[in-house]
From TrEMBL:
InterPro entries: Anthracycline_SecMetBiosynth, Glyas_Bleomycin-R_OHBP_Dase, Glyas_Fos-R_dOase_dom, VOC_core. It holds the Pfam family Glyoxalase. The lineage of its organism: Bacteria, Pseudomonadati, Pseudomonadota, Alphaproteobacteria, Sphingomonadales. This is VOC domain-containing protein. Gene3D superfamilies: 2,3-Dihydroxybiphenyl 1,2-Dioxygenase, domain 1 (3.10.180.10). Residues 7-125, 138-258 form the VOC domain. It comes from Sphingomonas kyeonggiensis.
Length: 262
């Protein structure tokens, strides 16, 4: 895969009920998640946006749940060498949750946690084509990647050293600390997200904001579908509108829409 090392290349929802997840997210985001999994082993379904695939949905089986897996959104970092990256994560104090393995015609991947316990995947895709799962302005795609970390400075150092993620500005948040904008190799200096200190009452982790046409409509669909808005709608610097939600399974994510006045 030709994405630069450290780029966000895929997003995955782990769920206990893929059918209910499809109904909820298809309504809110405008996706068409596969109604049935592809033939084979695990129950894995593609998230189809208007211009291609935006991620995947994996239904957790009994063994996964018994092993501690819970519904969550996870992100994938594209890397030049999966095994070398896993070794570097471990050397930096992270842990391996799924050792590196190959999926024919898909690529090599592993699931790890950073030194503060935040999970994510690393992957080297088999296809030479670049992933477009992340698109800053693409409707139906992740438009912003946000990490809440117990120690935001340590997180910036870790992801900078291992994934060439760089700080490209910041916004003071008072007692909440600093909201540090981050860029990666694919973004050519443009922010693709941010890192900030986790706040009381919230959990550490990567969170993802999906772009929708209208935040008010998204809020109504979240609530009609059994989800809950926990923050917003709020206008952020630059004019965009955002909400943070929990879906019907309690999974957190966000939605972002253009400036309503535009």
């Amino acid at each position: 895969m030709s994405n630069a090392h450290g780029s966000f290349i895929w997003y995955e929802l782990l769920t206990k009920d893929a059918g209910k997840a499809k109904a909820f997210y298809d309504s809110v985001v405008g996706w068409n998640i596969d109604a049935q999994p592809a033939p084979g082993g695990m129950d894995y379904r593609m998230i189809n946006a208007g211009d291609g695939q935006a991620g995947g949905v994996m239904q957790l089986n009994a063994d996964m749940i018994a092993g501690g897996a819970q519904p969550v959104w996870l992100g994938y970092f594209g890397v030049d060498d999966v095994d070398a990256t896993v070794a570097a994560v471990v050397a930096a104090g992270g842990q391996v949750h799924l050792p590196a393995f190959d999926i024919p015609d898909v690529g090599r991947l592993a699931m790890v946690t950073d030194p503060q316990g935040v999970p994510f995947y690393v992957m080297r895709g088999a296809s030479p084509e670049s992933s477009t799962a992340y698109q800053r302005m693409g409707f139906g795609h992740v438009a912003w990647n946000e990490l809440l970390a117990p120690d935001d400075a340590a997180a910036l150092a870790f992801y900078g050293r291992l994934f060439a993620i760089e700080k490209v500005g910041s916004m003071p948040m008072g007692e909440m600390g600093e909201y540090s904008f981050i860029a990666n190799g694919d973004s050519k200096g443009e922010a693709v997200g941010a890192i900030m200190r986790v706040q009381p009452g919230t959990k550490p982790g990567w969170g993802f904001y999906f772009r929708v046409p209208d935040i008010t409509e998204a809020q109504a669909k979240v609530e009609a579908g059994g989800g809950k808005v926990v923050w917003g709608p709020h206008q952020v610097p630059g004019g965009e509108w955002v909400i943070n939600i929990v879906d019907p399974e309690g999974v957190t994510c966000g939605f972002v829409s253009p400036d309503k006045s535009g």
